[in-house]
Amino acid sequence: MKLAVIDLGTNTFNLLIRDEAEKITLYNDKISVRLGDGGLNDDHIAEGPFQRGIEAINAHLVTCRQWGVQEIYTFATSAVRTASNGSDFIDAVYLNTGIRINLIDGDQEADLIHLGVQQAVPLNMDKALIMDIGGGSTEFIIADSTQVYWKKSYLLGSSRLMQKFRPSDPIKAEEMEELKNYFEEQLEDLFSAAKQFSPRYLIGSSGSFDTLAAMTALRFQNANVLEGLTSYTFDLYEYTTISKLMRESDFEQRLNTPGMIPMRADLMVVACVLIDFILVRLGIKAMKTSNYALKEGVLASLQNHSLSWQKSLL
Question: pTM score > 0.85 for this model?
Answer without folding.
Answer: yes
